[in-house]
Specification:
By secondary structure, this protein is of the alpha/beta class. The chain folds into 2 domains: 186 residues, Glycogen Phosphorylase B (Rossmann fold, 3-Layer(aba) Sandwich); 153 residues, 3-Layer(aba) Sandwich (Rossmann fold). The chain is built from 16 helices and 13 strands. The model has no long low-confidence stretch (mean pLDDT 92).
């Protein structure tokens, strides 16, 4: 039975990137003859500390503990057929652990779903920016036997470093992400956004046009934000909702319209559209900024809307607010798009075949 050691930062079911890029494939891989093991370096307590302000000594100790964990992984690598590194094996500029994995008996697979070479450091950890390197991602790619990317933009970045590139989009488990309630024609329309404390800035960029919508429609519209429980906007009546895997589907399906506003920059071009895909999978009509992979996911006016300027956001949101029929049309078409192109079911055999082909070499 071939064995895969998955190397990642977070415990299971903690990170969206991990959940949608590889964790949801564990059962399928096991059913097809693979044995999967996840090695992570941040437990729940360490996670809370590492992504908060301050705690410099604690963070230093976490880094040392993480290095010890990776040393143990290197020592075990020869017992595996594949070592799968998601984003990076260690949180500094070093590629030492990836190098050691590449020299083991195992094949090294690297997976990334963001423009991680751009070093988008969080506010809580800007003090550690000197420990990062823009060249790290390219070095890991060059060491790998196979590279998974989430979209064409990321693949184009990877190709100069490695010729064995597979594009596997970030996928939704459509058996899990399935409406449990009927999509209703409500008198009050909920416009919803999901994200995290690190991406709340993207929601805040939408505030100018959301405020104008509130002026236009009054109490006919209200807003929900999931993922940053500390977020409060009294003017729009928003109190952030804590994300939980247990309540995620219930909250998302309560949206009447889902929005994914993003700036048009290099970091965003590497993103894989997860927020929008999660709305669409639950038949929630979706509007996305017309940037990056969003323009591949959404066919404007067919399965959702793309928007650029505030005026365009207001115009297209207004169309959806005013028409239940249009909301329902986009919701059903969005679900179909996810099922056909961006679901676990649509991509699982591509994922499995990539591993099988690698082991034949």
């Amino acid at each position: 039975m071939p064995k895969i050691l998955f190397i990642a930062a977070h415990r299971p079911d903690r990170s969206p990137s991990q959940r949608y890029r590889f964790e949801q494939y564990f059962e399928f891989l096991t059913q097809n003859g693979y044995k999967c093991k996840l090695s992570y370096i941040l437990n729940e307590e360490d996670d809370a500390v590492f992504y908060s302000q301050g705690h410099l000594m604690r963070k230093f100790l976490i880094t040392l503990k993480s290095a010890k964990r990776r040393w143990m992984d290197v020592r075990m690598a020869n017992k595996y057929d594949i070592v799968f590194v998601q984003r990076e094996a260690f949180m500094t500029y070093s590629t030492y652990f990836e190098y050691r994995f590449s020299k083991s008996k195992a094949k090294l697979v690297f997976d990334f779903d963001d423009s991680i070479w751009l070093l988008d450091t969080s506010e809580a950890n800007k003090i550690w920016q000197w420990m990062k390197s823009a060249k790290k991602t390219g070095r890991i790619i060059s060491l790998s036997h196979l590279v998974f990317t989430g979209n064409n933009y990321l693949a184009d970045y990877a190709k100069p470093f490695n010729k064995n590139i597979k594009i596997i989009p970030t996928t939704i488990d459509t058996k899990l992400f399935q409406r449990t309630t009927e999509y209703l024609n409500k008198e009050r329309i909920c416009i919803g956004w999901s994200g995290s404390h690190t991406t709340i800035k993207h929601f805040e960029a939408a505030l100018p046009f959301l405020k104008k919508l509130k002026e236009k429609y009054g109490n006919k519209v209200y807003f929900k934000v999931m993922g940053d429980p500390d977020y409060i906007n009294e003017e729009l009546g928003i109190t952030g909702i804590l994300w939980s895997s247990n309540t995620e589907v219930k909250i998302l399906e309560s949206f009447d319209i889902g929005i994914m506003p993003l700036p048009n920059d290099e970091w965003v071009k590497g993103k894989c559209g997860l927020k929008g895909l999660s709305y669409m999978s639950l038949e929630v009509p979706t509007i996305m900024s017309a940037v990056g992979v969003n323009t591949e996911i959404i066919t404007d006016g067919i399965n959702g809307y793309l928007a650029d300027s505030d005026e365009e956001w207001i115009e297209k949101l207004s169309r959806l607010i005013d028409s239940y029929e249009l909301r329902r049309k986009f919701g059903l078409a969005g679900r179909k798009t996810v099922e056909e192109k961006y679901s676990f079911e649509a991509q699982k055999n591509n994922y499995l075949d990539s591993f099988n082909e690698l082991l034949k070499r």
